[in-house]
Amino acid sequence: MAKKGKRLGAAAEGIDRDRSYPLTDAVKLVKDRAKVKFDETVEIAMNLGVDPRHADQNVRGVVTLPNGTGKDVRVAVFAKGDKAEEAKTAGADIVGAEDLAEKIQAGQMDFERCIATPDMMAVVGRLGKVLGPRGLMPNPKLGTVTNDVAAAVKASKGGQVEFRVEKAGIVHAGVGKASFGEGALAENIKAFVGAISRAKPTGAKGTYIKGVSISSTMGPGVKVDVGTLSGAV
């Protein structure tokens, strides 16, 4: 732990904690400090002026990042017959029906996204207590309850990211990899912030986007000047 703290302290050198940097500068600072042996994920954290305990202040949705996430997302699909075949052809990692439900009940959840055809929701609904807390419950508003399973699988594999505000008004997500070019990361960040901006709930009052910061998996956080996210907010 001490080694990690020492390395993080060294990585934080040259970053002014009280300053909000233009997006291009912030991305460069994060990339320059991603020095560990694996390809770190670049993460964004946004502080929103909402209280998600109120239904009219909830922020949730999906966004497709223009340059993908750089992550191999494992997708499970609840479907039968032709729809199951469509899901497999589209690249789904796990496809099933009651058999898949049994595996999930037994704790086998080797996937990051879950999609279901509408006719399977009676089966999926019984898994609410297992899938819900993990943010994996299929939802028609997020495009994960659909008859077009092929499109949903391809979107999940191709850079679609779900977002959901947490209790403290924070929303965060991975927006790429440290190996991405600076321009690609900046585009992804703008796309994500734009989606959050468009998802502003009716009950939000005052300043909606209070702060934005980015970091790599093992690196220090860098504040981003919201004003430089032109076109996104």
The radius of gyration over CA amounts to 19 Å
State the end-to-end CA separation: 38 Å
Number of strands: 9
Order of helices and strands: HHEEEHEHEHHHEEHEE
Structural class: alpha/beta
Gross morphology is globular
Structure, explained:
Helices cover 31% and strands 21% of the residues. It has helices spanning 2-11, 23-32, 81-90, 98-105, 121-125, 128-131, 149-157, 182-198; strands at residues 41-48, 60-64, 75-78, 94-96, 113-116, 160-164, 170-177, 209-216, 222-224. It has a four-stranded antiparallel sheet, with helices on one face. The chain has a three-stranded parallel sheet with strand order 4-3-5, sandwiched between helices. It has a two-stranded antiparallel ribbon with strand order 2-6. A hairpin with a 5-residue loop joins strand 8 and strand 9. The longest helix has 17 residues, at 182-198. The model has no long low-confidence stretch (mean pLDDT 91).
